[in-house]
Write a structure and sequence with these properties.
about 260 residues, alpha/beta, four-stranded antiparallel β-sheet, 2 domains, six-stranded mixed β-sheet, Rossmann fold
Length: about 260
Amino acid sequence: MQTEIEIRGLSHHFVSPGGKSVSTIEDISLNVAPGEFVAIVGPSGCGKSTILNIVSGLLAVSEGEISIGGKKVQGVSKELVYMPARDSLFPWRTCKKNVELPLELQGILTPAERGERAEMLLNAVGLNGFSDYFPSSLSHGMRQRVAVARTFSTSPRILLMDEPFSALDAQTKIVVQDLFLKIWEEEKQTVLLITHDVMEAVALADRVVVLSARPGKIKSIHNIDLDRPRSVRKLLFDEPKFQKYLHAIWEDLDVQE
């Protein structure tokens, strides 16, 4: 099987204020295929975000090796887009100009083509007619829709997502997740998602990786055999297998009651 993201023997340590070495993750090995959607879940503090930061090149490797497309990670790559929990929109730029920003920074397309791409993506996330609005005029859910559109603007090979929908209320979260899936299922980027939400992991991913409590180690990997294209809304209410996956993953999670 072809590999897009290869993680081999990854461990990471940091030094506490008292000078003690603290291990966050230990011996993580994982392959992610091109176009595959992998979610990582685990207890708080188990090192999920640490893995994402190392894969992105934002954090240096303590032990082990990370490769993207067969090349060892050395710093931040233009092949990756990182989507955080907060929308991080620039308040002085309109919705359209926020979506265009990654294209501008990378010098991709002409100004007119950037505008067309931004308009298309804003329409795809249900923001027709909001191109010239500023973030301060939008609800939080609408701002996150703009962030989703911006994430896809450069058609990146790889999406790294750290709790991207966690700040949304339950109803808005499902709407934005479905909008995200609709675009992703057309473009098929390789995705590595970090989430505390087991339902989100099962609804979105092809595989769910469960980490143990700190120091995080891979405890189990669940293949999610649910048809695509998917609707998060329909899975929650109409798919019996969805509940079975939820139960199996919760059984594996090492969460204190």
